[in-house]
UniProtKB/TrEMBL annotation:
Any single Pfam family the record assigns to this protein: TctC
Homology family: Belongs to the UPF0065 (bug) family.
Protein's UniProt name: Tripartite tricarboxylate transporter substrate binding protein
Record's signal peptide: 1-27
Keyword Signal appears in the UniProt entry: yes
Record keywords: Signal
InterPro entries xrefs: BUG, Bug_dom1, TAT_signal
């Protein structure tokens, strides 16, 4: 089991080394030479979510003095699972590589029936989360979450629900809402789009009844009064947001999309601890807060064994929900 005390001890040593100008070597064997270069695999296209994560990793690690540079490699395909497979195969035993990962990858593994999962890598940490907003046009007859639920119970097909990819986070939320409301998730009229911009355009254009996406995708239009938010998927009220959670409106649904980082498979416990120390130093640095605020990420840090357990729990939840949607 990973010792949190050792992680903090190593992270403190890294921070002190960076402050004094002394570059640490992170591992034995194929260790990153000091000064070091890190390979970061972004399992998505340039400009996408995984790419943003990889570039934030590089920015903060360099600001903290942990590395001198990073080589970011984009490997898009199948919700990140193509990159996952290549990372597991090509970086086996390496100590100079990270993989950006997260909730989208976990759901894609299940929905696409991919014969590999995150256990093929070394789990390092959950880093950040984002909650979703359920929204309707300002002119909608739905004034509350209760109105939406009533319409779904009456005729699920009459409500066109816009969101991201089939089997992705928005679709999972739709399935969870349906189950919590006593509705067969298979009867939902879910309309997938490739991104938040398309979702917003469809909503404002009156082409769909409602939509779900990350709060940051809709926040400007919500504050401008162009769209109405019926609820957020956070587990508790959020500072600066007056919209109540779904749970506080008697619909027991909580959902966060989350981003994480994996290490290569078959590394030693000592190498894993060194990587965990790197992660701990990264998320503790002021530059990480800057990146998080810029990208709309909230603190959701969970390292080591606790993160590994969390992934298993999430996979079970996603599998159960996707099965109810007829996708697993």
């Amino acid at each position: 089991m990973i010792s949190r005390r050792n992680v903090i001890k190593n992270a403190s040593a890294l921070a002190l080394s960076a402050a004094s100008g002394i570059r640490p070597s992170f591992a034995a064997g194929q260790a990153i030479a000091a000064p070091g270069r890190l390979r970061i695999i972004a399992p998505g296209s340039v400009g996408g979510g995984y790419d943003a994560m990889a570039r934030s990793f590089e920015t903060v690690l360099r600001a903290a003095g942990v590395i001198d540079s990073a080589q970011i490699t984009n490997i898009p395909g199948a919700g990140g699972t193509v990159g996952l497979a290549k990372f597991a195969q090509e970086f086996d035993g390496r100590t100079d590589a990270w993989l950006a990962s997260g909730s989208t990858m976990v759901s894609a593994i299940i929905a696409n029936k991919v014969p590999i999962d995150l256990s093929a890598t070394t789990p390092l940490a959950r880093l950040f989360g984002t909650f979703n907003a359920l929204v309707v046009p300002a002119s909608s007859a739905f004034k509350s979450l209760g109105d939406l639920v009533a319409a779904l119970r009456s005729d699920p097909g009459s409500v066109s629900w816009a969101g991201g990819s089939i089997g992705g986070g928005d679709h999972l939320i739709a399935g969870m809402v349906a189950k919590a409301a006593g509705i067969d998730p298979k009867r939902l009229n879910f309309v997938p789009f490739t991104g938040g911009g398309e979702i917003l355009a469809a909503l404002l254009g009156g082409h769909v009844t409602m939509a779900s996406s990350g709060w940051s995708e809709f926040s400007e239009q919500i504050r401008a009064g162009q769209i109405r938010c019926l609820g957020i998927t956070a587990d508790q009220p959020t500072a600066g947001i007056s919209v109540p959670t779904l749970r506080n409106q008697n619909l027991d649904v909580v959902f966060y999309s989350w981003g994480a980082v994996q290490g290569p498979p078959a590394i030693s416990p000592a190498d894993r601890d060194h990587m965990l120390a790197m992660v701990d130093t990264m998320v503790s640095h002021p530059a990480w807060k800057v990146e998080s605020e810029k990208r709309g990420w909230i603190d959701y840090y969970l390292p080591g064994a606790a993160y590994e357990t969390f992934v298993k729990q999430q996979a079970n939840l996603y599998r159960h929900t996707l099965s109810s949607l007829g996708l697993a």
